[in-house]
Design brief:
The chain is mainly β. It is 4% helix and 42% strand. The protein has a six-stranded antiparallel β-sheet, with no helix packed on it. A hairpin with a 5-residue loop joins strand 4 (48-57) and strand 5 (63-66). The longest helix has 4 residues, at 75-78. The radius of gyration is 12 Å and the shape is globular. 26% of the residues are buried. InterPro entries: LexA/Signal_pep-like_sf, Peptidase_S24_S26A/B/C. It comes from Shewanella hanedai (Alteromonas hanedai). It holds the Pfam family Peptidase_S24. This is Peptidase S24/S26A/S26B/S26C domain-containing protein.
């Protein structure tokens, strides 16, 4: 993804920040600078495409993500994510 795409959110892991069933507008990863606190769409090797909040970038350049809801997969269970797996930054939310 190099431009802007729209995705539909399934699940409650980002509630209340992004309600289930909402649509999100994502700007391609090549056009954004990664910043903790921002929301990103990325490809997880085990869980597939996820939308989560970037919580930390460690000294090795690994990205650590978190959900906004207690029902989300934990940061530890997701593990570190490499920057090349980031698909885009969520720039706009259209709530369902």
């Amino acid at each position: 993804m190099f431009g802007v795409n729209i995705y539909r959110v399934s699940g409650v892991s980002m509630q209340p920040r992004i309600p289930a069933g909402s649509f999100v507008l994502c700007m391609g990863a090549l056009r954004t600078k990664l910043k903790p606190g921002a929301i990103y769409l990325f490809e997880h090797p085990r869980f597939g495409q996820l939308i989560k909040t970037l919580s930390n970038i460690d000294n090795a350049g690994n990205l650590w993500f978190k959900g906004e809801n207690g029902n989300s997969v934990s940061t530890q269970e997701m593990g570190p994510i490499r920057q090349k797996r980031v698909i885009g930054k969520v720039t706009w939310v259209i709530s369902a």
